[in-house]
Design brief:
Blueprint lengths: L1 E5 L9 H14 L3 E4 L32 H9 L6 E8 L5 H14 L4 E6 L4 H6 L7 H17 L3 E4 L4 E5 L13 E3 L4 H10 L2 E2 L8 H17 L8 E10 L12 E2 L1 H13 L4 E6 L4 H14 L6
Parallel strand pairs: 1-2, 1-11, 2-3, 3-4, 4-7, 7-8, 8-9, 9-10, 9-11
Antiparallel strand pairs: 5-6
Helix pairs in contact: 1-9, 2-3, 6-7
């Protein structure tokens, strides 16, 4: 099992130096990838429940900076040498597919094939409204965008006619460095997301705040069944996952649905993910201050990550 780490692209510390420092720290410690979350604007008033926090409230205040993720990853392509660069996850309906596919392909080229394309359908109704993107149709729009992606990467003279997008005889060059495309990791936790991962994805890439490894394995079994229904090899869809994590100095009471504890406790908990077939675990260190995050990532790399390599 390999590990990724989320970049500090939001918060008051987010900026050029912290991004470079964080990416190079992850590369030096042996992390496989760095990940950037996607957000364009933050409404002052949010009533949509946030599915990725304990209290279902969005964790980034509206007055905090939140950098554009694809721009950050392109910037870091020139500041790193080997570590992969991933977005977790691109909210597809926020952008026209021809536009974001061009950016993703450019990023894959500039990083010399190190880009991982995580995709999802989004959750915040207020952000959809501000961007004038249809919230209720976001799943169907996203599936159509993924169909478009295959056409763009495969055909010399790309054409598409769907319910939401239409174009005729367009050239889309260059194609991705990675063939036939950059890895496509499909996010989302619900049954419809599992079906989407089985139909389109190279990996299922959910973000669970709380989940046991048994629950994760059952969800992955649904992904594999969906892949088989779609006529694909179920083994071609990998099991990956995003999880929040807290590294503590002293032992804490363990729960099977959380990653919180000392290095020794985390080692035991993480091996359970490896046992159910997780191949990549992207970690978000849940500390409020940037210096604390740097310390936690360093300790994890030295005391935990080394045990898996």
């Amino acid at each position: 099992m390999e590990f990724g780490v989320f970049l500090p692209i939001s918060g008051r510390a987010a900026g050029r130096e912290t991004l470079i420092e964080s990416a190079r720290q992850a590369e030096r410690l042996g992390f496989a990838a760095v990940w950037a979350a996607d957000r364009i604007i933050i409404p002052w008033q949010i009533e949509t429940p946030y599915p990725y926090s304990e209290g279902e409230a969005f964790i980034v205040p509206a007055d905090r900076p939140f950098l554009e993720p694809l721009t950050c990853l392109a910037f870091l392509a020139s500041a790193t040498e080997q570590i992969r660069l991933g977005i977790s996850v691109l909210v597809m309906p926020y952008r026209h597919p021809l536009y974001w596919a061009k950016i993703a392909t450019t990023l894959d080229r500039l990083s010399e094939g190190r880009f991982i394309l995580g995709v999802g359908v989004g959750w915040m109704a207020e952000e959809f409204e501000a961007l004038q993107a249809p919230f209720e149709e976001r799943g169907r729009i996203s599936d159509e965008q993924l169909d478009i992606l295959e056409v763009l990467f495969r055909e010399e003279r790309a054409s598409f006619a769907g319910d939401h997008y239409r174009f005729q005889q367009v050239a889309f060059y260059p194609k991705p460095t990675q063939h036939p495309r950059m890895p496509l990791w499909v996010g989302g936790e619900a049954a419809v997301a599992q079906r989407r991962a089985g139909r389109y994805g190279d990996a299922w890439f959910p973000y669970f705040v709380r989940v046991t490894t048994d629950q994760l394995a059952r969800g992955y079994a649904e992904v594999q069944r969906s892949a088989e229904t779609a006529g694909r090899d179920p083994g071609a869809v990998r099991l990956t996952c995003c999880r929040p994590i807290v590294l503590s100095d002293t032992p804490v009471e363990q729960r099977p649905d959380r990653l919180h504890g000392t290095s020794e406790q985390l080692l035991e908990a993480l091996k359970a993910y490896e046992d159910v077939g997780v191949e990549h675990l992207a970690l978000q260190f849940m500390v409020p201050r940037y210096p604390d995050r740097v310390e936690q990532v360093e300790r994890f790399g030295e005391e935990v990550l080394a045990e898996f390599t």
